[in-house]
């Protein structure tokens, strides 16, 4: 069986990915299941801006993601694009809090060419209508801003999106707009964040705005979120392109609140024999606090952990003052450098194997003399039975008679080639060959003087 991939809506995995319309896009992870589209007669249709609608396919028209359809509107009909079909549509409706299925309108048909031509003609009038509406609102002294205008697919209705800080009485405005454009007027108020998401842009983080990519619901942001994260209350840095507090201030508040519980209060002073230390700043996530000997300026800064700070507070409550803030056992020791490249070396297994073998690595001492401690083995003899290990000197036998006036000497020469322990070398001082064991000196021969 051959699978063919098409751009947009194919018969294989491409059906899951639709047109990327920022936060309106929904990934259909059930699209490739056979019979998924017939599981539900509800479809999701997308219009301009952030407007979506859910309609019932009562005529059982074969619809796929990306099809342009004509749907029921009041009055007339509207033109939109199908973005979701099958089992996920009821789940999306539950997410959007649409509970009543009685009010769900129906899909008329797939858009014809005449429907698309009328739709394009209506869209061409949107910009000029917005500019003229702004001038009318200015003449009526209304404290509002017209952000955008959206015409219905058949051109019989227009939606005016506006921004206002206070309540606006636009009854007179609706009458003037109806006489000027001869369409049905609908006013819809949006917030500054929604307008920024509609326009789009790049944030100070270097990425596209969150409100223009994935955020669909906007939660109020307060300056308390900046205080919890110990951020400077600078309005120019805390405000986004919508002139409101940045939405990203709420992302890590819970993490900072949890980490703040592991630090002492900023009002507590630490008493030591060196003096009194005051809170200066804290690294909340690293659980580090910097204390200063002055309340206003950073003087003699000492950084300790939160655990050490609680220990000093407990000592102060018992009337004990430690010598200093940093305990001897808590002082940071210099970390040993770790060679990350060495960890990936293929010969690291050979070195570990040599470290376990005493014959290869000098019992693991690591002094580099492992090769000198190798022992020569004889047949049938273990290394422990060797009479004289390498480096040891043979001892003088106790039963060997000593000559009169002769001092015992240590053998400074190694025994090469013989295993009986006897010396073959001449004395380094006298040059005489030593007497073998049991040999007596003659009567006329005098002992050699050293």
List keywords for this structure.
450 residues; alpha+beta; GMP Synthetase, Chain A, domain 3; 5-stranded mixed beta barrel; 4-stranded antiparallel β-sheet; 12 helices; disordered N terminus
Structure, described:
- Among the domains are: about 100 residues, no CATH class; about 70 residues, GMP Synthetase, Chain A, domain 3 (2-Layer Sandwich); about 55 residues, no CATH class; about 60 residues, no CATH class.
- The radius of gyration is 46 Å and the shape is elongated.
- It is built from 12 helices and 12 strands.
- The N and C termini lie far apart (about 105 Å).
Compact summary:
The chain has helices at residues 88-95, 113-123, 126-139, 171-181, 192-199, 224-228, 235-238, 253-260, 306-317, 340-343, 348-356, 358-361, and strands spanning 42-46, 52-56, 68-72, 77-85, 105-110, 145-151, 157-163, 184-189, 270-272, 275-283, 288-292, 302-305.
Write the layout of secondary structure elements.
Blueprint: E1 42-46, E2 52-56, E3 68-72, E4 77-85, H1 88-95, E5 105-110, H2 113-123, H3 126-139, E6 145-151, E7 157-163, H4 171-181, E8 184-189, H5 192-199, H6 224-228, H7 235-238, H8 253-260, E9 270-272, E10 275-283, E11 288-292, E12 302-305, H9 306-317, H10 340-343, H11 348-356, H12 358-361
Parallel strand pairs: 2-5, 7-8
Antiparallel strand pairs: 1-2, 1-4, 3-4, 3-5, 6-7, 9-10, 10-11, 11-12
Helix pairs in contact: 3-4
Mind summarizing the main beta sheet? Answer: 5 strands, mixed, barrel
Give the percentage of residues in beta strands: 15-25%
What are the segments in which pLDDT stays under 50 over at least 5 consecutive residues?
1-13, 360-406, 412-431, 438-442
Distance between the termini: 107 Å
Strand runs, count: 12
Category by helix and strand content: alpha+beta
User: What is Rg?
Assistant: 46 Å
Major sheet: order of its strands?
1-2-5-3-4
Q: Encode the helix/strand succession as letters.
A: EEEEHEHHEEHEHHHHEEEEHHHH
The helical percent reads: 10-25%
Integer average pLDDT: 76
Shape: elongated
Summed up, the helix count is 12
